[in-house]
């Protein structure tokens, strides 16, 4: 079974379309690690697409904030203004769907999904120390996380933690990771709608645990058309510019 892993879509329908084109339907089910909305210009389109696909989705901090389930005091002013704009745009049924998304950790089909850290859905996992809880406490050997918008991850075996460099090079569209039991993995598919790891291409992953392979993908999309929709919506210029550089 091939599982399509989506994360941090952030209301970017053009990037999501590019991802679905690249995946070519060669997957059996899809999951999402949260942050369906926030930052981007297409909250209704992206939410509708996930609902149509039947994607099993956990909530991210932006989904919670837009749904009024957490205060935005900790958000920077740019993120907060995008949250407010998004809430005003969303159709009531899409807003209701977002407000009922479950938190991680969520075990499904042999993997575990979290948005941020294993113990705290709003916490970022950048360092090996921060990754340790997820590697040791998850109920599955392979756990996927999002939130940082950095594609990559960590593995653990015999008290040794390894940082995995698994991003495709600029000339490549995907890089494959071989899963080696009983090694444990904490993996980030990267962000579809707003990458921050220096590669502006949309990021996602496909997990095929029967064949012990996880593919990490990067696909280009027309960033300028998304930026045009963001300008038309008067979203903050800082959010518009960062899509060009993936930072
Ligand atoms: Fe995010």
Structural features:
247 residues, alpha/beta, Purple Acid Phosphatase, chain A, domain 2, binds fe (ii) ion, six-stranded mixed β-sheet
Describe the structure.
It is a single chain. With 247 residues, this protein is α/β, with parallel strands linked by helices. It has one domain: Purple Acid Phosphatase, chain A, domain 2, CATH 3.60.21.10. It is 32% helix and 22% strand. The protein has a 6-stranded mixed sheet with strand order 3-2-1-11-12-9. Helix 2 links the parallel strand 2 and strand 3. The protein is globular, with a radius of gyration of 17 Å. The chain starts with a strand and ends with a helix. The model has no long low-confidence stretch (mean pLDDT 97). The site of fe (ii) ion has 7 residues, from loops. Fe (ii) ion (FE2) binds next to loops.
What fold name goes in the CATH topology slot?
Purple Acid Phosphatase, chain A, domain 2
Number of strands: 12
**Assembly type:** single chain
Helix content: 25-40%
Shape: globular
Top-tier CATH class: Alpha Beta
Q: What is the beta-strand fraction?
A: 15-25%
CATH architecture: 4-Layer Sandwich
Largest sheet strand order: 3-2-1-11-12-9
Task: Note the run of SSEs as H and E.
Answer: EHEHEHHHEEHEEEEEEEHH
Main β-sheet description? 6 strands, mixed
Overall pLDDT score: 97
């Amino acid at each position: 079974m091939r599982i399509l892993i989506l994360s941090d879509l952030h209301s970017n329908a053009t990037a999501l379309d590019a991802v679905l084109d690249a995946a070519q339907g060669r997957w059996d089910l899809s999951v999402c690690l949260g942050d369906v909305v926030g930052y981007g210009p297409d909250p209704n389109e992206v939410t509708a697409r996930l609902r149509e696909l039947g994607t099993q989705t956990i909530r991210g901090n932006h989904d919670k904030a837009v749904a009024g389930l957490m205060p935005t005091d900790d958000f920077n002013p740019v993120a907060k203004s995008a949250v407010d704009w998004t809430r005003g745009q969303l159709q009531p049924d899409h807003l209701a769907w977002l407000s009922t998304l479950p938190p991680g950790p969520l075990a499904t089909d042999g993997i575990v999904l979290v948005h941020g850290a294993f113990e705290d859905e709003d916490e970022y996992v950048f360092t090996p120390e921060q990754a340790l809880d997820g590697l040791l406490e998850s109920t599955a050997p392979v756990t996927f996380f999002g939130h940082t918008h950095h594609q990559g991850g960590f593995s653990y075996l015999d008290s040794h933690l390894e940082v995995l460099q698994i991003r495709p090079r600029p000339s490549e569209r995907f890089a494959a990771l071989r899963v080696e039991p009983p090694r444990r993995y904490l993996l980030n598919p990267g962000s579809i709608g707003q990458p921050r790891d220096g590669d502006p291409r949309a990021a996602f992953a496909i997990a095929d645990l029967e064949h012990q392979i996880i593919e990490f993908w990067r696909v280009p999309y027309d960033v300028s058309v998304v930026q045009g929709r963001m300008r038309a919506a008067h979203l903050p210029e800082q959010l518009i510019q960062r899509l060009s550089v993936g930072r």
